[in-house]
Structure to design on (215 residues):
């Protein structure tokens, strides 16, 4: 079984963190590809659009590699429908996966993402996927993606504080791939369940591949 994680942005350290999370959860073969033609980070629709051509250009190589499932490793699910339409195998986004997982955990959930500019795309995705009625709140931490990727203790404290300030006891979906590596430290600071889209996508991708007969 081969699961391919494509990072739509050009930051290699984010790809490496995604792969590390995925490999800790499955025995499937994991590959992580970085879109070197994309922007350094994706914080809103404009950057997302700039990233899509580079991801689409890698789909032939994904077929040649033998990917059983492709995961778009950006919480905006950058270009998801266009990529699905051209890919040889199923494609899921980490945002989509996180929403599915959160709705299995509780009647309602919250989302904490990076910056305000990221909110409209995520809100549109929630509505398009049918999850908007289940979302109790969509919040921005005010921490840029590349700061989240740094993984510093100061960043973890700021993110934990933003989640506390948002209130509620519902599960909180971590709305950025750069938050994935922060999950253990956040969980130690917060009482509510946290949903990491990279972890959710890994487990769902593995299940999907098995349903399709991948060994």
């Amino acid at each position: 079984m081969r699961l391919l994680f494509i990072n739509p942005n050009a930051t290699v350290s984010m790809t490496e963190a995604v792969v590390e999370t995925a490999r800790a959860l499955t025995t499937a073969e994991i590959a992580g590809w970085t879109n070197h033609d994309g922007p350094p980070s994706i914080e809103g629709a404009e950057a997302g659009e700039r990233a899509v051509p580079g991801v689409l250009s890698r789909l032939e190589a994904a077929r040649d590699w033998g990917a059983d499932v492709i995961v778009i490793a950006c919480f905006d699910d950058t270009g998801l429908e266009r990529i699905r339409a051209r890919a040889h195998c199923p494609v899921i986004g980490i945002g989509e996966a996180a929403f599915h997982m959160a709705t299995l955990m509780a009647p309602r959930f919250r989302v904490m993402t990076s910056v305000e500019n990221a909110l409209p795309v995520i809100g549109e995705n929630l509505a398009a996927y049918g999850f908007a009625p289940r979302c109790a709140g969509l919040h921005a931490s005010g921490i840029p993606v590349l700061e989240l990727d740094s993984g510093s203790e100061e960043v973890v404290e700021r993110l934990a504080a933003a989640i506390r300030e948002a209130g509620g006891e519902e599960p909180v979906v971590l709305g950025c791939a750069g938050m994935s590596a922060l999950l253990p430290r956040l969980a130690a600071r917060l009482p509510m369940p946290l949903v990491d889209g990279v972890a959710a996508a890994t487990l769902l991708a593995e299940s999907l591949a098995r349903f399709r007969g991948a060994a």
